[in-house]
């Protein structure tokens, strides 16, 4: 009686599973940056209706997690603000290692596109332990 050897097929399937587990989050992530950290920040949940512009460490611009050419940013932001006339707030996520000049340029692009408020997004450092022993 002959048996089918499924070991090579299982090996291939496990390798494919591992590859997909590693590659899929990188593909879906879109914009990735290390945001600046701050103390005493208010927690605000991510809202789908927000206009979010991101700049990664290489200076690539993202609008709502989609890579966009820098020249297209003013027109796309203006369109986004026309769709939301009551809310002209831009949430700016920029990498910590990005030169400040690039952030100022992004804020100027947003202002020219009609943004009333540019909100810089940062991450909280988390709860800090007090150093005093008090009683």
Estimate the mean pLDDT confidence. Answer: 79
The description of the largest β-sheet is:
5 strands, mixed
Q: How much beta, percentage-wise? A: 15-25%
- Quickly give the structural class: alpha/beta
- Overall helicity: 25-40%
Please state the CA-atom Rg, rounded to the nearest Å. 22 Å
CATH C-level class of the domain at 37-124? Alpha Beta
Tell me the CATH topology of the domain at 37-124: Nucleotidyltransferase, domain 5
Strand arrangement within the widest β-sheet reads: 4-3-2-5-6
Please provide the ordered H/E string of secondary-structure elements: HEEEEHEHEE
Low-confidence stretches: 129-135
Terminal-residue CA separation: 80 Å
Q: Number of DSSP helices?
A: 3
Dominant shape? elongated
Tally of strands: 7
CATH architecture tag of the domain at 37-124:
2-Layer Sandwich
